[in-house]
Every structure is written in structure tokens, then in C-alpha cells.
Design a protein that fits this description.
Elements lengths: L6 E4 L9 H16 L5 H4 L6 H8 L5 H16 L8 H10 L3 E9 H10 L8 E5 L10 H10 L6 E5 L2 H10 L2 E5 L6 H7 L3 E3 L5 H5 L1
Parallel strand pairs: 1-2, 1-4, 2-3, 4-5, 5-6
């Protein structure tokens, strides 16, 4: 990697924040409440990109708003206390001190994301937070990554992102930027590799070495 990287776009869930079990349980709960049957992980796994994808695949025969409210209610009971992965804050501090410009780019909802980052007292690390709101399409579309670069005033050549899902890789490719796949989230090393991640790491502590 060249040394021209100025901006780093961080995915949130499965990358910085350990919410894998929380999100899976909330999806399963919503499907079970409205379908009458709890789905298996195998049924659910291909659709864990965004809650709208889970709804369309497994519960499209019921009304969307009640389904979404069931999902959000279940999620909200554990969401705010979800921990950061080991070394996350240490890495953010190191990168910030090194002069990198940091952003969060997540398919989670904007208000909840901002609330969480403030509650965890990590919001000061990030110049920009781009999350789901009207006008954006969720990953794998590049909308949010493109908006983050626009706000930071950085080009794709000056930007790198880190994420844990195949959709993160696809969005990065669509935005024209390099991506580091991290294996402690929703996708396996093989899945990230097959999707075309430029680099692979198993823990956040290894991320600064990639930049070096």
C-alpha cells in the first residue's frame, strides 16, 4: 500500500462493535413473531445485509412497519451496551494521533449510530458519521462511502475502508477504494477472500500494520 492514504472509513457492526449475536437474535425474533416459526441460521445468513433484506426474504407476506418495530424493540434492549471489539479504541486513538481522518460508514440507522458513539464516548474520533437515512441505499451500494469521501474531501486513492461483510467489499469496489476485510464479524475469511478483499486481518490490532 502506498503512503498516500488520508482517510479511513470504518464499518460499525461486526467491525468495531461486537453485535453479531445481538443482531442475529433480533432478526430471528422478528421473523418468529410474525411468521410463527424461528428461522435457522442457515436460512437467515444469506440476508444479513440490512433489515430490509431479511424482511423481504423471510417475512414479506406481513406488513413491514410492525415487523420492523418488533426487530427494533428487541435490538434496543441490548444495542447500547454492545461492546467494542478488543483493541478498537486503542487503534482509533493511534490512527487519530497519526493524522488519519476517520469516519464511520454503516447501514445501521443514523440516529441510533450517533447515539451509540456518543454513549460509548468514542464519537470524538470520527469527523464524519454516515449511516442509513433517506436518500441512501444500504451496502453493497456505494452511496454512503461516496458521501463520506465527499464530506472528508478525499479521493478514492486517498481512502481505505475496513469491514466484515461481503457487502462491505462490494460497496468498496463500487466506490473505487481498497478494503481491509476483518474476520471476527459476520463473514468468514474465505468469504471475504472470495469477495475480493484487498487485505485480510483477524483482529483490529493488526490494522495499523496494513497501513504501514
Amino acid at each position: 500500500m502506498g503512503n498516500n492514504i488520508k482517510a479511513i472509513l470504518f464499518d460499525l457492526d461486526g467491525t468495531l462493535r461486537d453485535t453479531k449475536d445481538i443482531i442475529i437474535d433480533a432478526y430471528m425474533h422478528a421473523v418468529e413473531v410474525h411468521n410463527g416459526r424461528r428461522p435457522s441460521l442457515q436460512e437467515l445468513q444469506p440476508h444479513i445485509h440490512h433489515h430490509s433484506e431479511v424482511y423481504k426474504a423471510l417475512s414479506a407476506h406481513v406488513a413491514y412497519e410492525p415487523w420492523l418495530e418488533t426487530y427494533r424493540t428487541k435490538l434496543s434492549t441490548a444495542w447500547m451496551e454492545a461492546p467494542f471489539f478488543e483493541h478498537a479504541e486503542q487503534v482509533l486513538q493511534e490512527l487519530k494521533m497519526a493524522g488519519y481522518r476517520l469516519a464511520v460508514v454503516t447501514s445501521a440507522e443514523y440516529d441510533r449510530t450517533v447515539e451509540y458513539l456518543s454513549y460509548r464516548e468514542v464519537d470524538h474520533y470520527f469527523e464524519v458519521v454516515v449511516a442509513m437515512r433517506e436518500g441512501f441505499r444500504p451496502k453493497p451500494e456505494p452511496d454512503m462511502m461516496l458521501d463520506a469521501m465527499r464530506q472528508l474531501g478525499c479521493t478514492p486513492q486517498e481512502t481505505i475502508t475496513i469491514g466484515d461483510m461481503i457487502t462491505d467489499v462490494q460497496a468498496a469496489h463500487a466506490a473505487g477504494i481498497q478494503i481491509v476485510g476483518i474476520t471476527h464479524g459476520f463473514a468468514s475469511r474465505r468469504e471475504l477472500e472470495d469477495a475480493g478483499a484487498d487485505y485480510l486481518i483477524d483482529r483490529l490490532a493488526d490494522f495499523p500494520d496494513i497501513l504501514a
